[in-house]
Specification:
By secondary structure, the chain is mainly alpha-helical. It is built from 25 helices and five strands. It has a three-stranded mixed β-sheet with strand order 3-4-5. Strands 1-2 form a two-stranded antiparallel sheet. A hairpin with a 5-residue loop joins strand 1 and strand 2. Helix 6 runs antiparallel to helix 7. One of its GO terms (cellular component) is chloride channel complex.
């Protein structure tokens, strides 16, 4: 115990020493130069997190494979995910305050609503929980936790050294880029992922820090991680123009499959997370259902990258190993049907994994189902005697197609597959399948699956830049809490006095507990206020109009939209359905103009 305590003290002392050196360096070199140094350090930190995650997950997969080989028990792989998810729930409940942020959408919320600040616990929470979940067989991916961890490293580094909002957000994105680059040894894909998915608006100068971090992550990962841990392919991929029509078919199928996967995943995750049980029982029930699926479809275990390599090598028979249909692994039609069913079941398995309390993401599942889909299409065309197609080509371009459709990130998909295949021989089919899949998916789902449920609420940046700026404005910082109101028991004389003694052009009508009953506008009662007879005979209840109001937690972009739709220049603001003030369009636009010049990342 004393040895561990001494080691902890030495480690803290070392970090303080390094921190002191960095503070000294910051005073010596320029701000831009220190930003570049910071990009390298964030890149190294993110890469080390990737190495830890990937090594653990791969080791557990090898252990599970060894147990299967030794015992020949097809159900052994089903036990580990239950243990992993229960351990994940235990860690979250006991050590992480009972909650953990999942999905890349949390990074975008941090950029859009929290000025690039991410909790310090995210630097280790994702590593621990996703290692337990995915490493022990949960049917999800490590890339989403990797990106959150990288973003947390970048954000907290920036906070520690007092970077401004622009550079803090940029370092956050650098952590994301480094994480993706390290996970796949794909630096270009890392940069593009940060641009397409995380940063809604940026300038050319932001490319340099992103490239530095991404390259650093790829270098560290490439030096330390074994090649077998990474998803890569050694085949010599070439493109035959006579197969264009079949690649178009893959793009179309992937577009619709992306829609299916996203919607089925959301439905299953929602169902599992809302099971009427206590936390551990819910985890056990959800993980139990996952265990049944893994028993029936063994390649649902973990990330599933090994099975992708098998398909790319046209060795799909291995997919049936340790399954109930193993004895049929030489029947090409049964193998094909089994592979196709596994692709459709993957979204259910991932939904159960995350809904029951596990931690992971959908990046790896998108590559998984994409490779399976590409294989099924190519093999089916071959089996019916239409044409013999290069199976490995369709397996890898299928990954790009589904990744593009699910995450609405065609450039990331194209260059990720190009990098992990070791060349650009498939660039033309990658362009075809990614663009078609993206176009179809975008037609039916405006937002990618990770931000679908929060984009319309204004919680993240989207391609609508004006709304991005507005949503960054917090309503509680701009509303006016000095508001006068009346009740139905008051007289129109009271209304007249308020109009004479305040700047308000409207008077809310409330009851005793401040709930809004209606509103009176000056322009609509002007004749009454200056007519003595009407003033005496008119009741407030007869003159008030229905009142529109917004909650204090509402996004400012939605507030402006509501004003425009109803031709209003002000709206009442409520909290817990009680009137607390009002907000004007003039004030919103004033703050909008102040924020406009600060939004772009330079």
């Amino acid at each position: 115990m004393s040895t561990a305590r001494n080691n902890t003290k030495r480690l803290k002392k070392t970090f303080r020493y390094l921190e002191g050196i960095l503070y000294l360096l910051k005073t010596i070199i320029s701000e831009r130069q220190f930003l570049y140094v910071s990009c390298v350090l964030v890149g190294v930190s993110s890469a080390l997190a990737v190495i830890l995650l990937k090594t653990f997950a791969h080791s557990v997969f090898q252990f599970a494979t060894y147990v299967d080989t030794l015992l020949k028990l097809p159900f052994s792989n089903s036990i580990l995910p239950i243990i992993g998810i229960l351990l994940t729930v235990f860690v979250i409940k006991k050590f992480l305050d009972g909650s953990i942020e999942k999905g890349t959408s949390q990074i975008m919320i941090a950029v859009a609503k929290r000025s690039g600040f991410m909790p310090r616990k995210q630097m280790f929470a994702q590593i621990i929980t996703s290692s337990l979940t995915v490493g022990m067989g949960g049917s999800a991916g490590l890339e989403s936790p990797i990106t959150i961890t990288g973003a947390a490293f970048g954000s907290n580094f920036a906070q520690n050294f007092r970077f401004n909002y622009k550079d803090r957000t940029l370092l956050l994105a650098c952590g994301v880029a480094s994480g993706i680059a390290a996970a796949f040894n794909a630096p270009i894909a890392g940069v593009l992922f940060a641009i397409e998915v995380i940063l809604a608006d940026m300038s050319v100068t932001a490319f340099i820090p992103l490239m530095i971090s991404s390259a650093t992550g790829a270098i560290v990962s490439g030096v330390v991680l074994k090649e077998s841990v990474l998803l890569n392919f050694k085949s010599n991929f070439t493109f035959d123009y006579s197969n264009i029509i079949y690649y178009v078919l893959v793009g179309i199928a992937a577009g619709f499959f992306s829609i299916y996967h996203a919607r089925m995943f959301r439905k299953i995750e929602h169902f599992t997370s809302h099971l009427p049980y206590k936390i551990y029982k819910k985890a056990f029930v959800g993980a139990g259902m996952l265990a049944v699926l893994i028993f029936l479809f063994p390649t649902l275990f973990g990330e599933g990258y090994e099975s992708i390599k098998s398909l790319a090598n046209n060795d799909a028979a291995t997919i049936l190993e340790n399954s109930l249909l193993e004895k049929f692994n030489q029947n090409p039609w049964i193998v094909l049907i089994f592979v196709g069913l596994t692709a459709f079941i993957k979204s259910i398995a991932t939904g159960l994994t995350l809904g029951s309390g596990g931690n992971g993401g959908n990046f790896a599942p998108s590559l998984f189902v994409g490779s399976y889909l590409g294989y099924v299409i190519a093999k089916f065309i071959e089996l019916i005697g239409l044409k013999k197609l290069p199976i490995e080509n369709f397996t890898v371009v299928g990954m790009a197609a589904v990744l593009s459709g699910l995450f609405h990130s065609p450039l990331t998909a194209i260059f990720l597959i190009a990098e992990i295949t070791g060349g650009y021989g498939l660039m033309v089919p990658l362009l075809i399948v990614s663009s078609i899949s993206f176009a179809i998916s975008k037609r039916y789902d405006n937002y990618s699956m990770d931000i679908f449920t929060i984009a319309d609420k204004g919680l993240v940046f989207t391609s609508d830049k004006d709304k991005n700026i507005l949503n960054k404005i917090e309503l509680h910082t701009i509303y006016n809490n000095s508001i006068e109101s009346v009740t139905v028991e008051n007289s129109m004389y009271d209304v007249k006095n308020l109009f004479l003694t305040t700047d308000q052009t409207f008077i809310p009508v409330v009851n005793e507990d401040r709930s809004i009953l209606g509103i009176i506008y000056f322009k609509e009662v002007r004749d009454i206020l200056f007519n003595h007879y009407k003033l005496n005979t008119t009741l407030i209840a007869n003159e008030m109009k229905p009142a529109l109001s917004v909650s204090l937690s509402e996004n400012t972009g939605n507030v402006v939209q509501l004003m425009d739709e109803n031709h209003l220049t002000e709206l009442l603001v409520t909290q817990h359905d009680k009137l607390i003030g009002f907000v004007t369009k003039v004030k919103i636009l004033e703050v909008y103009r102040e924020n406009l010049k600060n939004l772009r990342i330079e």
